[in-house]
């Protein structure tokens, strides 16, 4: 099944050529002019597909001023990370943070509890990942973080096939010294045309314990609708031998603080392809949601969400709800200039 999914993905790549967007170029240029002249566009863009978001979206979190380096390829033009900065002015850098919940998996399609079982995308999930890539195709990406699960990694890879920079995502293997040596790229030119992909189990979906592989409706019939709802939507009640959202948040947020925030602090533009609960945990941290507010937060599969990190704050700029991302994202001037540069290059 996985092989069939990948074969379908390859065929879909060919049918989703970037040339399909040429007819929209003039309209997108008009949007660019409007966006450059209106950097104060409201960030309160509604989530698509009926997804709900808490009313406290304007709250911000203050980033820690720690810094660490990850082995990543050279960033794209206009990235502030190309210019050396001091600790004093680092926080004035602007960086993009894109969050994407993976596309529909084969077990989502079958209405099964998936958790940490490593299940690939369905055909619909592949299409969702490609569509997500189109919607972020003009937003800079310097480094990608995914979970250790194939559905998140497939989503990241498929999305990047649609990016206008056409850089190649390369998974960084750090599990052993031999893996690091064997996967090393020696061509500097190739490195400049690559994007590092860092996979981490800390970004995995929460572990659903004994529910993994069970049909959700049958489980509700067996244990009762209220009990299953509590396992799925409460903050601190785990399913049998599984993780609660609170437990998932502990590992996901700690990883975000230690490994991802320093990238943003240095001016890197970051994409995270992960899961409903690990991303809910991160959004809880970014928007400073309470444990009661986060349980009502729903994220649709394959819908990118954009944050801007600037002056020590995370500012939510929305989620695309239309066929073309340019008219929906509240662009900053820097992102609009990046898009203009892409228009000139391609």
Automatic annotation (TrEMBL):
EC number: 5.4.2.11
Site residues by UniProt (Transition state stabilizer): 275
Pfam families linked to this entry: His_Phos_1 (PF00300)
Top-level EC class: isomerase
Keyword Isomerase among record annotations: yes
InterPro entries in the record: His_Pase_superF_clade-1, His_PPase_superfam, PG/BPGM_mutase_AS, Phosphogly_mut1
Keywords for this protein: Glycolysis, Isomerase
Residues that bind substrate: 101-108, 114-115, 151, 205-208, 216, 232-233, 276-277
GO molecular function, one term: phosphoglycerate mutase activity
GO BP term (any one): glycolytic process
Active site: 102, 205
UniProt cross-references to PANTHER family, sorted A to Z: PHOSPHOGLYCERATE MUTASE
Similarity comment: Belongs to the phosphoglycerate mutase family. BPG-dependent PGAM subfamily.
Name the UniProt record assigns to this protein: phosphoglycerate mutase (2,3-diphosphoglycerate-dependent)
Organism: Arachis hypogaea (Peanut)
């Amino acid at each position: 099944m996985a092989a069939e999914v990948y074969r379908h993905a390859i065929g879909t790549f060919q049918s989703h050529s970037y040339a399909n967007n040429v007819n929209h170029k003039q309209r997108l240029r008009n949007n660019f002019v409007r966006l450059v002249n209106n950097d104060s566009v409201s960030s309160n863009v509604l989530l698509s597909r009926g997804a709900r978001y808490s009313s406290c979206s304007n709250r911000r979190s203050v980033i820690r001023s720690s810094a660490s380096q990850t082995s990543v390829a050279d960033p794209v033009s206009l990235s502030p990370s190309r210019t050396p900065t001091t600790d004093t002015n680092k926080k004035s850098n602007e960086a993009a943070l894109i969050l994407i919940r993976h596309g529909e998996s084969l077990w989502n399609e079958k209405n099964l509890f998936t958790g940490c079982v490593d299940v690939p995308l369905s055909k619909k999930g592949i299409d969702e990942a490609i569509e997500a890539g189109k919607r972020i195709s003009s937003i800079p990406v310097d480094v990608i973080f995914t979970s250790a699960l194939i559905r998140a990694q497939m989503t990241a890879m498929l999305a990047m096939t649609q990016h206008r920079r056409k850089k190649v995502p390369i998974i960084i293997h750090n599990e052993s010294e031999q893996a690091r040596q064997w996967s090393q790229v020696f061509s500097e030119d190739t490195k400049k045309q690559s994007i590092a992909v860092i996979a981490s189990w800390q970004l995995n979906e929460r572990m659903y314990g004994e529910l993994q592989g069970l049909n959700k409706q049958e489980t509700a019939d067996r244990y009762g609708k209220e009990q299953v709802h509590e396992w799925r939507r409460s903050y601190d009640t785990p399913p049998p031998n599984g993780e609660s959202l609170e437990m998932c948040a502990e590992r996901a947020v700690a990883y975000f603080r230690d490994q991802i925030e320093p990238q943003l602090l240095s001016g890197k533009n970051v994409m995270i392809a992960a899961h409903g609960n690990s991303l809910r945990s991160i959004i809880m941290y970014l928007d400073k949601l309470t444990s009661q507010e986060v349980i009502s937060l729903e994220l649709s599969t394959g819908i990118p969400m954009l944050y801007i990190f600037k002056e020590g704050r995370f500012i939510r700029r929305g989620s695309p709800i239309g066929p073309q991302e340019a008219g929906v994202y509240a662009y900053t001037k820097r992102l609009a200039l990046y898009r203009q540069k892409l228009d000139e290059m391609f």
